[in-house]
Amino acid sequence: MDKHYLGHRKRLKERLTRSSQGLADYEVLELLLGYALPRRDTKELAKALLARCGSLRGLFHASAADLADVPGMSPSVNVLLNVWREFWSRVQEGLIQEREVFSHPRIVADFAIARLGRERTEQFWVALVDNKNRLIHWQRVSQGTVDQTPVYPREILRLVLHHQASGLILVHNHPGGDPKPSVQDQELTKKMQRAAQEMDIRVLDHIVVTDHDYFSFQAQGLL
Q1: Domain covering 101-216, topology
Q2: Residues 189, 203: contact at Cβ < 8 Å?
């Protein structure tokens, strides 16, 4: 069996060590795929995945169904890509937990995009904060369809009380790619505000994310 790719992979790793920025995107992807397919040449698969998705970012947000007919795809590659995505989501969530204060909606949006940006159905999450706006809990509260998810303010307020939080940030995704809130999103935000005010709980923001963008109710003067 021709194992020329082993020498090629070794040379790529040496180049990576000398100057990681000198590698092309497909070469970085080649090396990554090598951990899922250690006994295969991964160069053509890397190029095919980038051709399908347009970029590494596009690949990050692609679903298994998007990639199913790419020549050379396998279950082990899907596992590797899922581990990559989960790792990055946790890196982002870890960074946010290390910050003392939520100083800008972009901070919340960045880790929300990492966790929710590639989802094909709507998910609703809530970030709970203390009286200094430091994150103390981050949890999904519901999951729905492509364009809606059921949300119950009483369930969110129950979480707030359980974790002894003083404020909350509502977060959900729009799989369609447009972060602009719907009429239902705006009505839910107002309903949540009214319920929270009765319990002296602060609603700091409602952030809607896509795979690359976000909308902040607070920044747009809707809170």
Answers
A1: Cytidine Deaminase; domain 2 (3.40.140)
A2: yes
